[in-house]
């Protein structure tokens, strides 16, 4: 499950923030909310989803932005 979500994310598109589609935005926001509600550390979140820690930080940062933008 975790590997499939990470592969679906295609983290290269995260770097180009203006070109992320609505589906990608929802997935990133969902990952952020999962981190916020279920993990104590970024390191454990990254390990669970099988991604490097620096990518996990990017996912969380962008997901937080998307979530807070909703108001």
Structural class: mainly alpha
* Beginning-to-end CA distance, first to last residue: 30 Å
- Uncertain regions: pLDDT < 50 for 5+ in a row? none
The total of helices stands at: 5
* Helix percent band: over 70%
Count of beta strands: 0
Beta-strand residue percentage: under 5%
- Name the helix and strand elements from N-terminus to C-terminus, one letter apiece: HHHHH
How much is the radius of gyration in Å? 11 Å
| Largest sheet: number of strands, sense, barrel closure | none
Shape: globular
Average pLDDT, all residues:
82
Write up this protein:
Helix 4 packs across helix 5. With 71 residues, the protein is mainly α. The longest helix is centred in the middle third of the chain and has 17 residues. The protein is globular, with a radius of gyration of 11 Å. The N and C termini lie far apart (30 Å). It has five helices and no strands.
In short:
The chain has 71 residues and is mostly helical.
Give keywords.
76% helix, globular, 71 residues
Please give the structural blueprint.
Elements: H1 2-9, H2 12-15, H3 22-38, H4 42-49, H5 53-69
Helix pairs in contact: 3-5, 4-5
């Amino acid at each position: 499950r975790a590997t499939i979500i990470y592969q679906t994310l295609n983290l290269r598109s995260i770097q180009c923030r203006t070109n992320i589609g609505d589906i990608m935005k929802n997935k990133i926001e969902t990952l952020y909310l999962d981190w916020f509600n279920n993990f104590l550390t970024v390191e454990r979140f990254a390990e669970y989803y099988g991604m490097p820690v620096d990518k996990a930080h990017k996912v969380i940062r962008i997901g937080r932005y998307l979530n807070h933008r909703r108001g």
